């Protein structure tokens, strides 16, 4: 199984763009049982918390006032940028929002159940 993350950022033209990258894993010194674990690059963070977004939740174009990563735990959502990129994702997906001062994305919760996220804020 491949793990990917969506990154929302401003392109050279100042417009928001979405890029989907595969998370790279490498050998580590951590051992669980008899298995050596593979880990991604360690990223510093300031705080983390869980959020619930209700069914029908929608944002207009907004900017990310801090760098943060969202991990979808349940539910489905759509994220769109003003360059026309649209991604529909669900549980296990990861979004990385870079700090930006321009309108970058809209966000919609799909389905009737709402969605749960783990939010990790970098700054």
Entry summary:
This protein has 123 residues and is an all-beta fold.
What does this structure look like?
The protein has strands spanning 4-10, 16-22, 26-32, 35-39, 47-53, 58-62, 68-74, 76-81, 86-89, 94-97, 105-110, 115-121. With 123 residues, it is mostly beta strands. The strands form 3 sheets. It has a 6-stranded mixed β-sheet, with no helix packed on it. A 4-stranded antiparallel β-sheet has the order 6-11-8-9, with no helix packed on it. Strands 3-4 form a two-stranded antiparallel ribbon. A hairpin with a 5-residue loop joins strand 1 and strand 2 (16-22). The chain is globular.
What structural class do the secondary elements suggest?
A: mainly beta
Q: How far from one another are the termini?
A: 30 Å
Into which percentage range does the β-strand content fall?
A: over 45%
- What is the H/E string? EEEEEEEEEEEE
- Write out the strand line-up for the largest beta sheet, numbering strands in chain order: 2-1-10-7-12-5
Main beta-sheet annotation: 6 strands, mixed
Mean pLDDT: 88
Q: What low-confidence regions span 5 or more consecutive residues with pLDDT below 50?
A: none
Determine Rg (CA atoms, Å): 16 Å
Number of strands: 12
Helix content: under 10%
Mass-distribution shape? globular
Q: Counting H and I runs of at least 4 residues, what is the number of helices?
A: 0
List the helices and strands and how they pair.
Elements: E1 4-10, E2 16-22, E3 26-32, E4 35-39, E5 47-53, E6 58-62, E7 68-74, E8 76-81, E9 86-89, E10 94-97, E11 105-110, E12 115-121
Parallel strand pairs: 1-10
Antiparallel strand pairs: 1-2, 3-4, 5-12, 6-11, 7-10, 7-12, 8-9, 8-11
